[in-house]
Design brief:
Strand content: 15-25%
Number of strands: 3
Shape: elongated
Radius of gyration: 16 Å
Structural class: alpha+beta
Order of helices and strands: EEEH
Oligomer: single chain
Number of helices: 1
Distance between the termini: 23 Å
Length: about 80
């Protein structure tokens, strides 16, 4: 399932900096805009996978149900 996230990015001197708005702690930098966006994609993928692993580990050994939810864009 593909999902879209928003990133705030800016150039400061010779470097590009950015962070993903929806997921706290997902930030990166790059020498080019393209490198920054690639780095943010990697950081976001890793953060989502770690969050998923932690959530599943917390439910281990219990009777739980995994369901899909959909969230609309903020008003």
């Amino acid at each position: 399932m593909n999902q879209t996230y928003s990133a705030c990015i800016r150039k400061d001197g010779k470097w590009w900096y950015g962070w993903v708005e929806e997921i706290q702690g997902v930030l990166s930098q790059g020498k080019t805009k393209r490198e920054l966006l690639s780095n943010l994609q990697s950081a976001l993928s890793e953060a989502l996978e770690m969050n998923r692993e932690r959530a599943l580990a917390a439910m281990e050994g219990s009777d739980y149900e995994e369901v899909q939810i959909e969230v609309g864009a903020p008003a």
